[in-house]
Specification:
Structural class: alpha/beta
Shape: globular
Number of domains: 1
Number of strands: 11
Mean pLDDT: 94
Distance between the termini: 21 Å
Oligomer: single chain
CATH class: Alpha Beta
Largest sheet: 6 strands, mixed
Helix content: 25-40%
Number of helices: 7
CATH architecture: 4-Layer Sandwich
CATH superfamily: Metallo-dependent phosphatases
Strand order of the largest sheet: 4-3-2-1-10-11
Length: 241
């Protein structure tokens, strides 16, 4: 009986990380087939330059996602900061449903807010400015209109640029802002939040208007470590893969 809901994020799949791709495909072929739904909260891919890109391991991943959704497991996706250009063609080819950047679900009777997590890092002003610009239809149409080879080269340059920019930033700036957390949860009227992005897996207890609340941070997948958050009627557990 399918009575579990699974949550993952930040796999950063790329040809340079075949071990992580193998772990993800194993998840799709075995563990996820037993679940009611799989939620991927962003950055499944390290870069995404358009739905017309078939660079490895994209084709293989799409094939196994389609196989999973065809077997009855629902798969939902929230864009990450690395793959926010994933579009309708990807959804049609895989059966994956694309969600809004903030999405509220009923998780066994509790209203639960889902997001990638980058919107919560409001202390990182340069990134938030770039995010605002890069999510406009005009910016995305301009990028996607470029030849595929140009976009591939740009993606490699952007990854390198991002790496050096991160080295200059403090860890605190790249983490979530607590006031933003509280404002967002109050706005969406939830006492539970699940997100990724920060690569700091943990369960945080907090108070919202005098009531208990929780924030779940999903783990980044690496060569030697990967995990998922599994939820059922009896509660949650973190599973190593």
């Amino acid at each position: 009986m399918r009575n579990e809901i699974l949550f993952i994020s930040d796999l950063h799949l790329t040809i340079e990380r075949p071990e992580v791709t193998r772990k993800f495909i194993q998840l799709l072929k075995i563990r996820a087939t037993e679940a009611q739904a799989l939620y991927i909260l962003g950055d499944l891919f390290d870069t995404w330059i358009g739905d017309d890109d078939f660079s490895p391991p994209i084709k293989k991943v799409k094939k196994h996602l389609k196989a999973l959704t065809s077997k009855g497991t629902q798969v939902f996706y929230i864009h990450g900061n690395r793959d926010f250009l994933i579009g309708k063609r990807f959804s049609q080819e895989t059966g994956v449903s694309l969600l809004d950047e903030y999405s509220v679900i009923d998780l066994y009777g509790t209203s639960t807010l889902l997001t990638h997590g980058d919107l919560l890092c409001t202390d990182d002003l340069p990134y938030q400015e770039f995010r605002l610009k890069s999510h406009t239809p005009e910016w995305q149409e301009n990028v996607l209109s470029k030849p595929l080879l140009f976009r591939l080269l740009y993606a490699r340059w952007y990854r390198l640029r991002s790496y050096f920019h991160k080295r200059k930033k403090s860890q605190d700036i790249m983490d979530v802002n607590q006031q933003t957390i509280e404002q967002v949860m109050e706005k969406h009227q939830t006492k539970r939040l699940i997100h990724g992005h920060t690569h700091r897996p943990a369960v945080h207890d907090l108070q919202l208007q005098g009531q208990d609340a929780q924030r779940f941070v999903l783990a980044e997948w690496k060569k030697d470590s990967a995990s998922l958050l599994a939820w059922s009627e009896s509660g949650y557990k973190v599973e190593s893969i």
